[in-house]
């Protein structure tokens, strides 16, 4: 698979590690034959404020980029355990009803969601930088596992709209990366992107009667003994 990629960056500093890795990543994808377009939200001066009946040209332009993309890269620094406000506003405005969600199933009329939304089939990779040490964002880390920290994006935004989220690409201790260590960070990202088309996505469960009851709660026999976010993956079934 080599197709169209959209790289979305949310970082205010064009001289930052994030901006540098964006450049490295886009070059690596293009070298592998991907056609890449980008949305540098701060450089674009993206307006994050949602208004009613937003038919703005900037929203339509971003939706066209999304519609054309086979792969979406979302890159941002982890701020207060979440995304920068400008990226949240990009989701709010671009992932609108009728485009990314609230898309009806032509057979049943029910709205498609959790694996079957308006963006079905697109792969998504989150590239996130954090000042924390690596272990702090691991299974027993004080900050929580990165998969759980990013649950609202991975499951509640990407999977909800039908995209196939991959495991986050996490760069920790980002403030300490210097000329001596940046090479290994670059290689790690390039290696990840080399296999991004074949990598197995996170195995979230689809919202189907086989797995969930009418209150959208897991059936008792699904993921027995497992609670929390981990229960909603095939590997726990």
What portion of residues belong to β-strands? 5-15%
CATH architecture of the largest domain: 3-Layer(aba) Sandwich
**Distance between the first and last residues' Cα:** 29 Å
Question: Could you spell the SSE succession in H and E letters?
Answer: EHEHHEHEEEHHEEH
**What structural class do helix, strand and pairing data support?**
alpha/beta
For the sheet with most strands, the description reads: 6 strands, parallel
Describe the fold and architecture.
One of its GO terms (molecular function) is NAD(P)H dehydrogenase (quinone) activity. InterPro entries: Flavodoxin_fold (IPR003680), Flavoprotein-like_sf (IPR029039), NAD(P)H_dehydrogenase_qn (IPR051545). Keywords: Oxidoreductase. The chain is α/β, with parallel strands linked by helices. It has two domains: 4-202, Rossmann fold; 205-237, no CATH class. Helix content is 28%, strand content 15%. It has helices at 17-31, 41-44, 57-68, 85-94, 146-149, 151-159, 182-194, and strands at 4-9, 35-40, 71-77, 103-104, 111-112, 123-129, 164-165, 169-171. Strands 1, 2, 3, 6, 7 and 8 form a six-stranded parallel sheet that branches. A hairpin with a 6-residue loop joins strand 4 (103-104) and strand 5 (111-112). The longest helix is centred in the N-terminal third of the chain and has 15 residues, at 17-31. 32% of the residues are buried.
Write the layout of secondary structure elements.
Blueprint: E1 4-9, H1 17-31, E2 35-40, H2 41-44, H3 57-68, E3 71-77, H4 85-94, E4 103-104, E5 111-112, E6 123-129, H5 146-149, H6 151-159, E7 164-165, E8 169-171, H7 182-194
Parallel strand pairs: 1-2, 1-3, 3-6, 6-7, 6-8
Antiparallel strand pairs: 4-5
């Amino acid at each position: 698979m080599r197709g169209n990629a959209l790289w979305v960056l949310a970082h205010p500093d064009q001289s930052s590690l994030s901006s540098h890795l964006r450049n490295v990543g886009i070059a690596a994808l293009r070298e592998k034959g991907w056609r890449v377009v980008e949305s540098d939200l701060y450089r674009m001066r993206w307006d994050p404020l949602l208004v009613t009946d937003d038919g703005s040209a900037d929203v339509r332009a971003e939706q066209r980029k999304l519609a054309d993309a086979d792969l979406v890269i979302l890159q941002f620094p982890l701020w207060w355990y979440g995304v920068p406000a400008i990226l949240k506003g990009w989701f709010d405005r671009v992932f609108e009803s009728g485009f990314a969600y609230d898309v009806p199933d032509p057979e049943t009329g029910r709205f498609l969601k959790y694996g079957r939304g308006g963006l079905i089939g697109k792969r998504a990779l989150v590239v996130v930088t954090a000042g924390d040490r690596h272990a702090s964002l691991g299974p027993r880390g004080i900050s929580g596992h990165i998969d759980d920290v990013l649950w609202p994006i991975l499951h509640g935004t990407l999977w909800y709209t039908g995209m196939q989220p991959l495991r986050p690409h996490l760069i920790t201790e980002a403030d300490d990366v210097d000329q001596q260590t940046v090479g290994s960070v670059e290689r790690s990202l390039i290696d990840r992107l080399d296999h991004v088309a074949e990598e197995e996505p996170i195995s979230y469960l689809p919202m189907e009667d086989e797995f969930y009851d009418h209150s959208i709660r897991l059936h008792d026999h699904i993921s027995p003994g497992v609670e929390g976010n981990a229960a909603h993956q095939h590997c726990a079934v």
